[in-house]
Amino acid sequence: MLGKCLDNVRKNTPLVHNITNYVTVNDVANILLACGGSPIMSDEPEDVEDITAICGGLNINIGTLNQSSIKGMFLAGKKAKELDHIILLDPVGAGASKLRTDTAVRLMDEIGFTAIRGNISEIKTLALGSGTTRGVDADVADTVTEDTLEGAVSFVKDFARRSGSVIAVTGAIDLVSDGDKCYVIRNGRPEMGRITGTGCQLSGMMTAYLVANREDLAEAAAAAICVMGLAGEIGWDRMQSGDGNSTYRNRIIDAVFNMDAQTLDKGARYEVR
Amino acid sequence: MLGKCLDNVRKNTPLVHNITNYVTVNDVANILLACGGSPIMSDEPEDVEDITAICGGLNINIGTLNQSSIKGMFLAGKKAKELDHIILLDPVGAGASKLRTDTAVRLMDEIGFTAIRGNISEIKTLALGSGTTRGVDADVADTVTEDTLEGAVSFVKDFARRSGSVIAVTGAIDLVSDGDKCYVIRNGRPEMGRITGTGCQLSGMMTAYLVANREDLAEAAAAAICVMGLAGEIGWDRMQSGDGNSTYRNRIIDAVFNMDAQTLDKGARYEVR
Amino acid sequence: MLGKCLDNVRKNTPLVHNITNYVTVNDVANILLACGGSPIMSDEPEDVEDITAICGGLNINIGTLNQSSIKGMFLAGKKAKELDHIILLDPVGAGASKLRTDTAVRLMDEIGFTAIRGNISEIKTLALGSGTTRGVDADVADTVTEDTLEGAVSFVKDFARRSGSVIAVTGAIDLVSDGDKCYVIRNGRPEMGRITGTGCQLSGMMTAYLVANREDLAEAAAAAICVMGLAGEIGWDRMQSGDGNSTYRNRIIDAVFNMDAQTLDKGARYEVR
Fold first, then answer.
1. Within 13 Å and on the Cβ side, how many CA atoms surround B65?
2. Domain boundaries, given as residue ranges, for chain C
3. Neighbours of B199 (CB within 10 A)
4. CATH architecture of C3-272
5. Which residues does residue B39 pair with via DSSP β-bridges, in sequence order?
6. Which residues in chain B touch residue C67, judged by CB atoms under 8 angstroms apart?
7. Which of A34, A71, B248, C227 could bond to A45 as cystine, CB 3.0-4.6 Å?
């Protein structure tokens, strides 16, 4: 049951070092606090190794990357690897610019992540671009729907196996695989796409879930995705006439704050393939 | 009617590249999503040309500028110009420091903007400082009131003509001109000044409006200003006892999210001079 | 009475220059506007001296520091000192990394602050590390409770005397001293720790209080702490079923927005030792 993953986060208060974009960083910090984790942000190369050393997990998000923060990502990533920490990559905008694609691929090849979370387009970009994943069949549809699900599940499993990372593809249907099993998750609401940073928030929270649940990483990642999607459903139910995306953002983080194991186990909608 | 400008934004989902300050960037992203646009943020010189190439508009805001982001502004601006994209300048703090004034003036002279939006003091600084606008009579009052309106309208029209940009001066009364006609807008509430970044938000949204309504840029800019001001009125009406500026921020973005063409046409308060 | 400090802020609209982290900067700006101040953010070395010159106070917060912003901190700090402005240091994460500790200590030694605000661990780090405070007895407990209060009060008084700064240690019990008297404050709620940046917000607001109340700096700092803690209590009372930390953040800033002198004087819970 996923509920115990949630309880483990609340029990262990995982400390997560985030090198993330300045657009959604405040929401990432607040959702980490909401779920029971504790956030630290630092991207300066001279600072990141000390900071990551006192944490249990490292969340690297390449949105608004710059030359200095890229250096910070590699330094922090290598130190975290050396210390056997959880390391997650959110390849925001991979495929949209050469710098983002190259940085994400180099990070993958040189560091090796516990988990990678992105949309199908970003994940396909990594699958095609990375030396360690050469041979992955990325000839998969650009959206994951019931019709394209079978091919997408194969792709995600294959990429997870070859990369050695838990791969999480989020969208209307979410997929998470460790190369063996694949969680197919149907929580969430389409209106979540009208808020900036629900993906970044999920990556932050997923890092905390992985840190507190190292014995089954795919399950931990799936639990974080179900929490986020279910919070999107609970938050939407609390919306009132005149409310819009700014209030919805608050309601989702609030729902994560109030989520308990029982609510999660009752509301999570997933199957394992 | 301005309502069709709003519908065009919702129909076309204009993608807007923002090089903007880290203070209000999250609200800029959320208001772009609220109005029906789609935001991307990137300021790294090596990244900005690729990112701006996939967008329809570029919003340059010089709040919290730094040496690296300034380079990014010039590179993105030139690429966007080359691709005939919409380019907007928000000269935050022009006149308050030499670096801000010089950067804004250089950007104006070297790039040439579709539109420039600022308060009267920032716009006067540009009118006085720029080589391409030498001769503009900036001997205009420091606030736009009913008493000083006539002179301000002349100034804005003149500056728009000489600069070749749509000029938007926002304050208690807002003015927008393309050099020919000048919209005089009386939407909004004074309490909006107690929230950080309503100006930055407007600049982001205005860029989306310009992208989706290229056939009449002054009208598009006026529509964005009316949406923002009207959202400020609608949001204020929803305030409850104990609410303050933080909740008001959410209510304004929410009102933009829920705004439709009919509401805009009914609520917009403007005249054309 | 502390209420007059609040009124002085509202009357004088102190302009505060903030060099602060990108995580909580938006909330710092909004709380400064909520309390009656006015925020400007700038960290670029070429920009900071001009910006700080037009302000009354400078708030330096070292969270997410980088090589460029560190240069900005020294340049702005020296200019502000030269102009006899209020200068506050928030040593976020001092003790957690060498760069943060060294930067905070160097800033203390080279600039000299009007006030320093942090948690007990950060303040102890400064007390131990700084040349100007050598000899301070930092053998004090790591949390301030009723049991450890007496030692903590002595430590704060001693550090204030030796450093020449008003020292504010915030936690479950807050302490503020100018070396002579020490305010012991018991406002606030533990749930405030589940929101990112309540400390950063307090530092921003405290800078505004110091600027508007130069005749008694310890009292001004104590007033800001009481406002923040009381806003945390008032905001919590307005929470509804299903609300969480994201809504709580808004409610606290809203409560600062609505606070008046009478409410503050009635709700402030402090003693002077």
1. 28
2. 3-272
3. 23
4. 3-Layer(aba) Sandwich (3.40)
5. B16
6. none
7. A71
CA gap A146, C168 in Å, rounded: 58
d(CA C29, nearest CA chain A) in Å: 13
CA distance B188 to B227: 9
Q: Which residue of B has its CA nearest to C24?
A: B23
CB-CB contact of C130 with C105 (8 Å)? yes
CA B89 → CA A28, B59, B152, distances in Å? 29, 6, 20
pLDDT in the model for residue C57: 98
Distance from CA of A127 to the nearest CA of B (A): 21
Instruction: Give, as one character, the DSSP assignment of residue A94.
Output: B
Q: Name the H helices within chain A.
A: 3-12, 25-35, 45-53, 67-82, 98-110, 120-129, 149-163, 198-212, 217-237, 245-258, 261-267
H-only helix segments in chain C: 3-12, 25-35, 45-53, 67-82, 98-110, 120-129, 149-163, 198-212, 217-237, 245-258, 261-267
**DSSP 8-state code for residue C164:** T
- Cβ of C34 within 8 Å of Cβ of B194? The answer is yes
Minimal CA–CA distance to C217: which of C271, C174, C180?
C180
Per the CB < 8 Å rule, is C30 touching B242? no
Whether B44 contacts chain C with CB within 8 A: no
Which A residues 139-178 touch B at CB under 8 Å?
A: none
The pLDDT of residue A129 is: 82
User: Which pLDDT band holds residue B137 (cuts at 50, 70, 90)?
Assistant: low
Q: Give the residue-averaged pLDDT of C1-12.
A: 97
Q: Which of residues 56-85 of A touch B (CB under 8 A)?
A: 63-67
Q: Which residues of B touch C47 (CB under 8 A)?
A: 65, 97, 99-100
| Binding partners of C (≥3 Cβ pairs within 8 A) | A, B
Q: Which position has the token pair 């009354």?
A: C56
